[in-house]
Design a protein that fits this description.
The chain is of the alpha/beta class and 305 residues long. The chain folds into two domains: 5-59, no CATH class; 73-301, Rossmann fold (3-Layer(aba) Sandwich). It is built from ten helices and eleven strands. The protein has a seven-stranded mixed sheet, sandwiched between helices. A four-stranded mixed sheet has the order 2-1-3-4, with no helix packed on it.
Length: 305
């Protein structure tokens, strides 16, 4: 159904409807507004109310109502990681960490992951663990940082652990400066009001709130739509999702249809073979298990070349 307009001295004015479309086109508009906007753009002609004795005039939609720009990466708000972290550049701890075997291991994992996703045209990769405390946030953040060091690449790191979010703390960033994750996934918070650019090649979706209904949010069709819109707008090479433990809740299981692959983080001090076997059973036929990362391994078990 077409929206009707009335003429005025200042030009056509928009009639209010159930979904109010802002007057100026902007990529900061929430997705629920974008939907209405696209419907308006799809109309070839807009009716202007005229006196009954005259023929209705038509006019072409003005350029202030534009479709979402095709590439929004450089338009994201920036927030650089603080100095109380060792993962991203900007602190002495980060410079020292780059010289360690752990950092080199993440670089090796990064290169193998990039080769795999390019070969299969994959984008969405989850970092999960069998149980809590295995270090998947540590792994996801360090892997994202390593990926971001590849020139002209784009990585998005999303904190999808709605039980115990931790990416903001790991990167020493302020999650209160963005919209709520649940609102973003529901389409009520725009991409630019949630996703932050931590560097030229890394963007992050932070989270500080916990959600008891996390599994339901993961399965909401609006979540899939919002993430698809985010990928189309930012064009990342890889989107890393820091996920909650596979065996503790059904959150990650509920999100498997949205994933291209899973990296499983195990803990050398607590993860048992039966835990990994159960995770493999859950993933079987759903999404590829790209590898098992051993965290907190005994130093004597690490080969050096």
């Amino acid at each position: 159904m077409k929206d009707t307009y009335t003429s005025s001295a200042d030009g056509p004015s928009r009639r209010q409807g159930d979904l109010m479309v802002p007057a100026q086109g902007s990529f900061t508009r929430p997705r629920r507004f974008n939907t209405a906007q696209q419907e308006l753009i799809g109309e070839a002609e807009l009716i202007v109310n005229q006196p009954e004795t005259s023929t209705p005039a038509v006019f072409t939609e003005d350029t202030s109502l534009q479709a979402t720009p095709s590439d929004l990466w450089n338009l994201l708000h920036e927030q650089h990681p603080g100095k109380d972290q060792h993962i991203m550049e900007g602190s002495q701890a980060a410079e020292d960490f780059r010289a360690t075997d752990v950092s080199r291991a993440f670089d090796l994992l990064r290169t193998r992951l990039r080769q795999t996703v390019k070969q299969n045209n994959w984008v969405n990769i989850a970092v999960a663990s069998p149980t809590a405390g295995c270090g998947n946030t540590f792994t996801a953040a360090n892997l994202a940082a390593s990926l971001s060091r590849v020139p002209s690449s784009r990585t998005v790191l999303m904190d999808f652990n709605m039980r115990t979010p931790g990416v903001a703390k790991a990167l020493d960033m302020d999650a209160s400066q963005t919209g709520n994750l649940n609102d973003f996934l529901g389409g009520d918070v725009a991409i630019s009001d949630f996703i932050l650019r931590a560097s030229d090649t890394l963007a992050v979706g932070l989270n500080s709130a916990t959600h008891a209904d996390a599994a339901e949010i993961m399965q909401d069709p609006a979540t899939a739509a919002s993430l698809a819109e985010m990928r189309a707008a930012l064009r990342p090479d890889i989107v890393l999702f820091d996920m909650p433990p596979l065996l503790s809740h059904d959150d990650t299981s509920a999100f498997l249809p949205q994933l291209d692959g899973v990296l499983l983080v195990s803990d050398g001090t607590q993860t048992m073979a039966k835990h990994i076997a159960e995770c493999e059973r859950i993933l079987d036929g759903q999404v590829p298990l790209l590898g098992v990362i051993l965290n907190r391994a005994r130093a004597s078990s690490i080969e050096r070349f």
